[in-house]
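Hi all, long-time lurker, first post. I run a small reading group and we've been trying to get comfortable going from sequence to structure in the token notation. Rather than ask abstract questions, I figured I'd post a concrete chain and ask someone more experienced to write out its structure so we can walk through it together at our next meeting. Sequence below, copied exactly:
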Amino acid sequence: MASKKILEQKQAVIDEIKMRTESAKTIVLFDYRGITDSEAKELRIKLKESNSDYKVYKNTLMARAFNDLGIDLNESLTGPSAFAFGEDQIAPIKVLSEFAKEHPALVLKVGIVDGEKADQAKLAEYATLPSRDGLLTMLAGGMIGLVKDLSICLDLYSQQKEEN
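-- Answer (accepted) --
Happy to help. Here is the structure in token form:
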């Protein structure tokens, strides 16, 4: 039987996983086998730029934390798994997907986005969505177009009124 100190350390890790899971809008489990140290550092930098990060925990500790939270990811916790988490729903998925295109050794397994489980196909679908900033830019562009069209219409209407 493990000593009390070791059990306390393991419980602290489980609590950390639970805290990160509860505070993140998105979590993604991915297989990192075949990624070199320099590639892992590059991935961490890219994730940090999008207010995301990843950490490697033992699968048994992740399974206990997820079970405590009522999340069933046990079938995905086979082989080495890393745990990515982020404040944005799409950012960590996009970063990991782009990185996986350049480094085929990285494989996305499963994710939780806003409390809903997302398999590999769903993660690939999310990866194609524009970022939040991109969506806001599209919205602003559309709104500017409407205002421009309205101003042209009002100008033409005022010119027509002046002629009459």
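A couple of things your group might point at:
The domain at 4-129 is CATH 3.30.70.1730 (Alpha-Beta Plaits).
Strands lie at 26-31, 52-56, 82-86, 107-113, 116-118.
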